[in-house]
Design brief:
295 residues, mainly alpha, 0% strand, globular
C-alpha cells in the first residue's frame, strides 16, 4: 500500500469514528429533550435533573468530537456548514448549562435548547457531508475565525435568553396566581429568573456587534469591500437592529413587559434566519449571495 493510500485509509477511519461519535452525541441530546418534556408534563424535578446531568455528558463528549475534528482538519472546526451546525449545538448547550447552574430545580428552558441541539445535529448528519474539504479562498482569513467565534457565542447567548423569555411568558400567569411552586418558580424568584434573559441579551449584543465588525473586515479581505448588502449581511443587520430595539424597550416602562419579550423572541427568529434560513431563501429564490459556499 502506497503512502497516499495509507493516509486516505487513516483519514477515512478517523472520519468514520467521528460520525459515529456525532450520532451518539445527537442521541444524548435527543434523550435530554425527551426528559425535559417529561419534566414539563409531570412537573417532577427528577427527569429535569437527569436531563441536565446527561446534557453535561453530551457537551463534554462533544468537546472530544470538536477536538477530533480540529485534529482531522488541522484548522478551526467551524469552516463548513456541517461543522458550524455541530459548533452551534455545542455552544448553545454549554451556555445553557453555565446559566442553569445558578438556578434550583428550574429546567424548562432546556426544552428549546436541546430541541435546537438535536435539530442542528441531525441536519448536519443527515443532510450535510462530513468530509473534510479544502478551505475555499474566502475562508482563508484570520478575520473569519474571529467573526465565527463571536457570532456563534452571541447566537448561543440569544438561544438561552429566548428560552428563558418563552418560559416566563408561558408560566408567569400561573405563578402569579398563588405562591406555590411551578417548575421551580414562584413569586419570589420569577422576576429574578426573567431578568437573566435581559442580562444575557445585554451580554450577547456587543458580541454580535463585534461579530459584524469582524465580518466586515473579513469581507474586505476576501472580496474587497466591507459591506455589500449581501442577504447574509442584511439579515445580520436586521438581527442586530431587533435586539437593539429589545434592549431599548427594556428601559421604557410601557414596553418592558410583553412588547420587550416579543422583541426578544423576534430577535431569536431573526438570528436563526441569519444563521441558516437566509442560505435556503437565497438559493430558493435565486438571490445572488457570496455566502452560499456554506451550503
Amino acid at each position: 500500500m502506497s503512502n497516499l493510500e495509507t493516509i486516505l485509509s487513516r483519514d477515512a477511519y478517523i472520519l468514520s469514528i467521528e460520525v459515529r461519535l456525532f450520532w451518539f452525541i445527537a442521541l444524548i441530546y435527543g434523550i435530554c429533550f425527551i426528559l425535559y418534556i417529561i419534566h414539563l408534563t409531570t412537573k417532577k424535578t427528577g427527569p429535569g435533573r437527569l436531563a441536565t446531568n446527561m446534557l453535561w455528558v453530551a457537551v463534554i463528549t462533544h468537546v472530544g468530537l470538536i477536538l477530533l475534528r480540529t485534529f482531522e482538519g488541522q484548522r478551526a472546526p467551524f469552516q463548513t456548514l456541517y461543522e458550524s451546525l455541530s459548533w452551534f449545538a455545542w455552544s448553545a448547550s454549554i451556555t445553557y448549562l453555565y446559566v442553569e447552574r445558578k438556578w434550583k430545580d428550574i429546567f424548562l428552558p432546556g426544552i428549546l435548547v436541546t430541541s435546537l441541539a438535536v435539530g442542528a445535529s441531525l441536519y448536519a448528519l443527515l443532510a450535510r457531508s462530513p468530509a473534510v474539504e479544502p478551505l475555499s479562498p474566502p475562508l482563508q482569513s484570520y478575520w473569519f475565525e474571529w467573526h465565527v467565534i463571536l457570532a456563534f457565542l452571541s447566537y448561543a447567548v440569544f438561544v438561552v435568553s429566548c428560552s428563558i423569555e418563552i418560559v416566563y411568558l408561558v408560566i408567569r400567569s400561573s405563578v402569579k396566581k398563588d405562591l406555590r411552586l411551578e417548575y421551580g418558580l414562584n413569586k419570589g424568584n420569577l422576576e429574578t429568573f426573567h431578568r437573566t434573559s435581559f442580562r444575557l441579551a445585554l451580554f450577547g449584543f456587543p458580541l454580535l456587534t463585534f461579530g459584524i465588525f469582524s465580518g466586515a473586515a473579513w469581507a474586505n479581505e476576501a472580496w474587497g469591500r466591507y459591506w455589500g448588502w449581501d442577504p447574509k449581511e442584511t439579515w445580520s443587520l436586521i438581527t442586530w437592529t431587533v435586539f437593539a430595539i429589545y434592549l431599548h424597550s427594556m428601559s421604557i416602562q410601557k414596553w418592558k413587559e410583553l412588547p420587550a419579550s416579543l422583541f426578544n423572541i423576534l430577535g431569536f427568529i431573526c438570528m436563526l434566519m441569519t444563521f441558516i434560513g437566509v442560505n435556503w431563501l437565497a438559493r430558493l429564490l435565486g438571490i445572488p449571495s457570496l455566502h452560499l459556499y456554506a451550503m
